[in-house]
Amino acid sequence: MSEFLIVDSVVKTYPARRRTIADFILRRRVPLIYAVNGASLKLDRGRTLVLLGESGSGKTTLGRLIVGLERPDSGRILVDGEEVPYVGNKAYVNSKLRGKLQMVFQDPSSSIDPFMSVKEIVSEPLTKLHLSKNEVMKAVNEALELVGLDKSFLNRRSSDLSGGQRQRVAIARAIITRPELVVLDEPTSALDASIQAQILNLLVKLQRELNLTYVFITHDARVAKFIADYVAVMYLGKVVEYGSADDVFNEPLHPYTQVLLSSVPTVGTRGLPKTIIGEVPSAISPPKGCPFWPRCPYATDACKAVYPQRRIIENREVYCHIYNKG
Ligand SMILES: Nc1ncnc2c1ncn2[C@@H]1O[C@H](COP(=O)(O)OP(=O)(O)OP(=O)(O)O)[C@@H](O)[C@H]1O
């Protein structure tokens, strides 16, 4: 695989709570949430990587790190050979990657001001680029056309649009800078099934026309199956399995992937456990060893003691002691 996107051993923590005066006086450390805990991935240009996992597995945090909306505590993220700058850093302004990385969120109404017109929303990423009015209008019209909205939408307010139209506007805003990589965070999960399919098809069309690379975040294995070239299954901040969508869906190797995908039709379910026992452990003090062991039917003493090393099995990366035997 060539390496347009490289995520290398990335860790991102957040304080689990605000530091109190008592913490300060007692010199007590605030516990940390390990949102992303040592994730590594690679992706070709023009392909779609799905980050798949339950709520709280670190998908959104990893997506935000990839576009520079968050800064990793350690590890590196490279796009096209350049280290992704944090958007709050001065270096961002002069970076080759400025405008080349965009993110689309699940619920456009939370990321879009309902009182702004479509024209204002879509042109927003161009505001600091010193373009003429004509150039901005040309770019807005092109972006709207690409997402299937005509000029009659230009002056409509986002609050007057349907969910599907609002998501098209959010996508137009993301592509107006002609990005190379777009992180799509559950872009269809707030939509009805028929609209969901339209937006997924639109994303596929745009990827082809604009040679976009996608990191697509979802907890929905069916959506993942539709859109993915590659799948990274995340659990408690870690990538537990990573491979081509065909491989991962046809023969999931990690016990967690097996359970996660066992509800999806056509997935091989030979001898697989059908349900996951218990709850996702806390990301504040993740269990020692493999984070999945408290819920894994195959857990052994080794799983409780040490995090499994990466094993490559027929082009697939998997982190599970089952495959470390022998
Ligand atoms: N800004 C933040 N401050 C504190 N904790 C955070 C912050 N952002 C994420 N977290 C925590 O990090 C962990 C991973 O969250 P994240 O949103 O990345 O997971 P996710 O897989 O995208 O889940 P969801 O689908 O629910 O958004 C969770 O425990 C979450 O509570």
Automatic annotation (TrEMBL):
Biological-process GO terms, alphabetical: peptide transport; transmembrane transport
PROSITE patterns attached to this UniProt entry: ABC_TRANSPORTER_1 (PS00211), ABC_TRANSPORTER_2 (PS50893), SIGMA54_INTERACT_1 (PS00675)
Keyword ATP-binding recorded: yes
MF term (GO), any: ATP binding
Name of protein: Dipeptide/oligopeptide/nickel ABC transporter ATP-binding protein
Source species: Vulcanisaeta souniana JCM 11219
UniProt entry tagged with the keyword ATP-binding: yes
Pfam families linked: ABC_tran, oligo_HPY
Taxonomic classification: Archaea, Thermoproteota, Thermoprotei, Thermoproteales, Thermoproteaceae
Entry keyword set: ATP-binding, Nucleotide-binding, Transport
Every ABC transporter domain range: 5-261
NCBIfam families given in the database record: oligo_HPY
Family recorded in the similarity comment: Belongs to the ABC transporter superfamily.
